[in-house]
Amino acid sequence: MVTTPSPLPVRKPRKSTPPSSQRTRGDIPFAIVNYTGFLLMALLCAYPFYYLIINSVSANDASALGDVRLLPQGLHLSNYEQIAGLQGLSSAAIVSVARTVIGTVCTVLASAFLGFMFTQERMWKRSLWYRLTIFTMYFSAGLIPMYITMKTLGLTNSFWVYIIPLIVQPFNIILVKTYVEAMPRSLQEAAEIDGAGTFRTFFRIILPNMTPILATVAIFTAVTQWNSFQDTLLYVTDQSLYSLQYLLYTYTNQASSLAQAAQNAQGNLGSIVSAATSQTPTSIRMTVAVIVVLPIIFIYPLFQRYFVKGIMLGAVKG
Amino acid sequence: MSLTQGTPTTAEANAAAPAKLRPAPDPRRRRGSREVRSAQSSKTLFLMILPFLVLIFLFSYLPLAGWVTAFYDYRPALGMSGSEFVGFQWFEMLVSSPTQMQQIGQVLTNTLAMSFLGFATSLLPVFFAMLLNEIRAPWFRNSVQTLTTLPNFISWVLVYMIAFSLFSTSGLVNSVLHDSGLITTPIKFLDTDQHVWLAMLLWSLWKGLGWGAILYLAAIAAIDPALYESARIDGAGRFQIMRYITFPHLMPTYVVLLVLSIANMLNNGMEQYYVFQNAFNKEYIQVLDLYVYNIGITGNSLSMATAIGMLKSLISVLLLVAANAVAKRARGTSII
């Protein structure tokens, strides 16, 4: 399932472990305990995902009893076919994908632009604006004032509540600003001598030169957007704007009635419903959970180094 | 900016035109014109970020105005103007009504319990990193790292979903225990008021331990290998090296993170507790953030919830300032 990742960039080849000639008698037992411990820990983290996946493709009567533990039983994919017809699922999938794509593009561009602009010492009262921006990381007005604000701004029950409040992310701005400051100053000066305006310099010169840091910002933003649950809970009551995460939460709470609905739908279609493929609360939950988690499982190993870079850069400033 | 010195630019030429109205184009005027130009461009730069500053104002500073809600008996239907001004009534209620005080006391206990359990386990990522560093096979080390950091990137909803699949009365654990004859009736792992804090701690460790260790792994990689070599020449064993070389080098990072988490001890967030909350565990799972949500959104006591949220925000900022001062004293640099 999970591919072996490329070695982390922070991990340069080095020789801090003792050479084998210096192994002592205690080394072998220690290694056994250590390897076993980490093996168990890795299994503890990985097994739940595996459990969800094998259960979503197993006979539904067996999975409802918790009998599918190590290998899938009675392999079938009908859960995935049937769940597509579940009320709200397709719209939630569209909402989740849209907020992830649009939100990531907006946040990345804004972070890049602001991170660059805050390095422009000519800007009128630059350090004041920068401080006002960064200061917002350290306080929050609280839940109810935020709710009242969103309502006043007309963002409740609007798709844009998923995008606009998240455009300016002080932490990302710090990351980008640090990165731009480390770029050669001559880069921007050369562009300006050639007559490029600020926008032109930014889009033509600076932006193409900061893809590594933007990749880090993008990947974190995308995961945050995809996983976001609280904003739907707080600001959205319109069912057509539910995100996949929120839908999964409601499914977990009302899966029994949903299973009934799915079974009724099958009955209406006149298909023969067997115990192995008829929807149960468990099968619905597992299948939706797999749909929600699969993108993360796939992208995470591929982009692991960007995540790691993000936390490293954050730590430098943090 | 000063590169154009000496060569008349269009901006200067333009600026010089109205100068004809004046008696003489003196040098001061010329210098002034350049200042005008640079001031314009510095204002232009400001105008370019203005839209974003507006967003910051709208979503971070404007909500502070909502704190006035705490001094009104706010009814959404009536709006702010229709609601009655009550002064410090909500703040007084917090400390005067016995039932309210008892409830707040329990909520504060839960909040601090979760935070202190967090502090108590804050060394685990350090040990995790130190031990993982002792693994020699790179493929094994990298696989472990990937798998143990994965849970950090799924939402709490999914964590709850997993918890439900594994630990509900019809879940995997009960089914295994039942099949092996250890129990006859299913154990209620989730719908219970027993060991709520412990369960919450274990779930947040499951989610965050591997990820928390990454920073320390990077810090270990940055330690000078010469230190290890000389320690080995001096005859230090594996554990002595870990104890006297690796561990002390991780402490600066650890202390910064600990101080920050102390400053954040009232802010547990609500998502984890919200998804795990049910009628059985409510008493022990309600941390401040969740309580504000529960009484504010669900219970419709918007003003009371605002009052509590406001106190929490103010205390948090004070804690952060204090933590920063401590760090400044100890390390010479501030952490924020």
From TrEMBL, chain B:
Where in the cell? Cell membrane
For this protein, the record's Gene3D superfamilies field holds: MetI-like
Q: Where is this region: Disordered?
A: 1-36
* Stretches with biased composition (Low complexity): 7-22
**From which residue to which does any coiled coil extend?**
none
Q: Does the keyword Membrane apply?
A: yes
Q: Which residues cross the membrane?
A: 44-64, 112-132, 153-177, 197-223, 244-266, 302-327
Query: Where is it chiefly localized?
Result: membrane
Record's compositionally biased regions (Basic and acidic residues)? 23-36
- Protein's membrane topology: Multi-pass membrane protein
Query: Please, which domain of life does this record's source organism belong to?
Result: Bacteria
Task: State the similarity comment.
Answer: Belongs to the binding-protein-dependent transport system permease family.
Protein name, please? Multiple sugar transport system permease protein/putative aldouronate transport system permease protein
- The record lists the organism as Isoptericola halotolerans
The taxonomic lineage of its organism, from the top, reads: Bacteria, Bacillati, Actinomycetota, Actinomycetes, Micrococcales
